[in-house]
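Write out the 3D structure for:
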Amino acid sequence: MAGESITEILLQADARGEPLGPAAITFLVRRYAAGGGDDVRRALERGLTGVLDGVAAGEREPAWIPMLCEAAAVTDDERVGDAVAALSRALREAWPYRGPMLDAMHGIDACLAAAMFLSGGRPDGRDLVAGAVDELERVVSLAYRPGESLPRSLRSPDEPDGGVEEHVAAAAALLTAHDLTARLPYSMLAEELIQPVRRSTDEPGVAARCALARVLGRLARLHDDEEYVRAAIVAPSSDYRAEARIVLDGVAALAARHSEDAALLGVAMGEIAHAS
């Protein structure tokens, strides 16, 4: 599905008055930054306003954080930074977290993204880096067993029944921690955790498959770095970029049925193309 088709799907959803999800707004941010027209700008403004109003009303969604961090580059609305700070504070209040592994890793990943954004001068970011990294290491030490699957819930860390979604979310958070700290153990563990599910026969939804493709694309970019490959322990004969494209090709038809799924596909496709 081409970017123009995805843009049209999102613009039609906006015209119908449907609230745009975090992936849809992220996609529109990137389209607008690349030269999107007034129709993209208007849809983006409405989507961002809805999210900012939701945050002000007390709504909390971890996926809003990375989206707002990107949106800050195309808007001068001061509420964006305040919203990122408010969302990250709300997530931190739940630490140490002992619920579903998926929620734990989504929250940590979002806070790591917030830390990168807020550390550029806001007092909110001063200790968020250390706090998010500490929570990541606590969860990993509780849940990770070499050679075993991650648990579905931190309440039962000795029951390794986690699937594609849990492993992808953990790998994504570890890769973000590597982006933030440059610590090789984080990216190497991310690569280890993705191995059992990278060619999984399970058929999770569009969101999970797109998240898998994005992680594979991030690993591909690391493997393109000769210095990184020399320093890290990497999986041999890994064509993560080709695998990511196969994953996305497999969900393209399904993604067209829903605006947020179409946006998830578009965001992932853009990142894989950027990784080439």
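The first helix runs from residue 3 to 15.
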